[in-house]
Design goal:
alpha+beta; five-stranded mixed β-sheet; 4 helices; globular
Length: about 180
C-alpha cells in the first residue's frame, strides 16, 4: 500500500510542478507586447503608422510600449493587411533622447543596453542587433529584460525607438519613432 501511495504522491507532485511551470509560462506570455503596424500613402509619400498602444495609461500614444514592474516581455511589431504583402520591417533603432539617432557622441543609456541585451557597437549606433528575426519580414521582435531597479511606480528607463520598413521590391525606407517605457523589477 505504501508503494502505491508513494507512486501516486510522486505522480501528483510531477503533475503539480508541470502545472506550475505552465502557469508561469502563461503569465510570461500574458506580459508580451504586440503592436500592429500599417503603411499609409499620404500624397507622394508613404508613412509607417502604428495601429495600437501597449501603454494602458496612454491609449492614444500609438506604438507606445509599457513593461510593467517585474515583467520581461517579448515586444513584437507586425505589418497588417496589404502592408504585409508590399512592405517588410527591416530594423529597429533606439535613441537616448528621441533626437540623436546613431550618433556616437550620444550613446544609448546603460539601462537601454542592459534591458535589450545590446552590444557596445549597438550602444554607439543605436541599432538593436538582438531583433528577431535578423533582417526582418512582416514581423520583428525584441526581448525587453526590464532589469533596472523599481522606483515608486515611475518609469525607470525610457527608450525612444524607430521601426524601419522598406518596400518589398526595393526603394527608400520609412520609419516612425514612439517610446518604450520600463518600470523595472
Amino acid at each position: 500500500m505504501s508503494i502505491i501511495f508513494s507512486t501516486l504522491h510522486l505522480r501528483l507532485q510531477r503533475a503539480l510542478l508541470a502545472l506550475a511551470a505552465l502557469a508561469a509560462c502563461t503569465g510570461a506570455w500574458a506580459n508580451d507586447k504586440h503592436i500592429d503596424v500599417t503603411v499609409e500613402n499620404q500624397g507622394n509619400t508613404s508613412k509607417l503608422v502604428f495601429v495600437n498602444s501597449e501603454c494602458p495609461d496612454r491609449p492614444n500614444e500609438k506604438g507606445c510600449v509599457l513593461a510593467e514592474k517585474d515583467s520581461s516581455p517579448m515586444i513584437s511589431w507586425q505589418l497588417q493587411g496589404d502592408s504585409a504583402r508590399a512592405w517588410r520591417l527591416t530594423r529597429l533603432q533606439m535613441s537616448p533622447d528621441g533626437v540623436h539617432w546613431g550618433h556616437a557622441n550620444f550613446p544609448l543609456a546603460d539601462c537601454t543596453v542592459e534591458d535589450f541585451g545590446l552590444s557596445e557597437n549597438d550602444r554607439r549606433t543605436g541599432n538593436a542587433s538582438t531583433t528577431l528575426p535578423p533582417g526582418g519580414g512582416s514581423m520583428i521582435q525584441v526581448r525587453n529584460h526590464n532589469q533596472q531597479a523599481y522606483r515608486n511606480n515611475e518609469d525607470v528607463c525610457v527608450t525612444h525607438y524607430r521601426l524601419y520598413a522598406e518596400p518589398v521590391g526595393g526603394g527608400a525606407p520609412i520609419d516612425s519613432d514612439p517610446t518604450i517605457r520600463n518600470k523595472g523589477k
